[in-house]
Amino acid sequence: MGSLRLVVIVLLLGSPAFAQSSPTYGVGRTPTAEEIRALDISIGPTGEELPPGRGTAKEGAELFEQKGCVGCHGAAGIGGLAPALKSKTGQDVAIRQGESIPLFERILPLHSPLATTVWDFIHRAMPLGNEGTLSADEVYALTAYLLFLNQVIPEDEVLDKQSLPKVKMPIGDDYARLPDWKPGTPRLQGYPY
User: Fold this and answer.
1) Which of 49, 78, 83, 104 is 20 to 30 A from 110 in CA distance terms?
2) Taking a C-beta distance cutoff of 8 angstroms, is the pair 114, 165 a contact?
């Protein structure tokens, strides 16, 4: 009976009627449409949200040093304390179905299903401590550099709003493949529940 009482309480607390009647404490305000648009920086697979700009691997290599990326990720994306950005073994980094990928094998430019994901991550999260300070041109150039380092694109390819979404990533469709599973068996190999 106690668990039923708990379920009823949880349902009531999560209901819209409860939320509308809850006190506001006079803190905060509803954001304006302009404020919401400014925070909506997600880049989808088609790249239609990408800003104008362009960049090449050569420009990205210079920026990689100028912006201090080398200090965290090491020269050419290997050997720093931060995650590696280049595979030591090429594009043959193992993608194991049903297993978590060890940290040293999680190479963003190889395991991302889309090149727009690489752009989006650099745009949102780099450089550490100064996130969001890179211009669109700088992000295109750094993305081109990382993709070039991992032999995804040639060094002279120019990345921009039109070309970036068309880059074919090494992982292909493997990121979306579902593991074999049958009812009554563990969900994933190595997953205990």
Assistant:
1) 49
2) yes
pTM of the model: 0.71
**Where is pLDDT greater, at 106 or 26?**
26
How does DSSP classify residue 163?
A: T
Q: What DSSP state is assigned to residue 160?
A: E
Q: Which is it for strands 159-160 and 54-55: parallel, antiparallel or unpaired?
A: antiparallel
The candidate with the shortest Cα–Cα distance to 118, out of 109, 127, 110, is 109
Q: Say which residues have a Cβ less than 8 Å from residue 68's Cβ, sequence separation at least 6.
A: 127
Residue matched to tokens 């295109």: 140
Q: How many of the other CB atoms lie within 10 Å of CB of 57? A: 23
Alpha helices per DSSP H over the chain:
2-13, 16-21, 33-39, 57-66, 69-73, 108-111, 115-125, 136-149
Locate 12 and state its tokens.
């009531």
- 102 by Cβ neighbours in 10 Å (0-12 / 13-18 / 19+) ranks as exposed
CA distance 103 to 192: 20
The torsion angles phi and psi of 55, rounded to 5 degrees, stand at: -170, 155
Evaluate the CA torsion angle 49, 52, 54, 59 in order and state its sign.
negative
Cα distance between residue 188 and residue 79, in whole Å:
32
Q: Tokens for 18? A: 């409860």
On whether the CB atoms of residues 110 and 171 are closer than 8 A, the answer is yes
Q: Check whether 122 has a pLDDT greater than 90.
A: yes
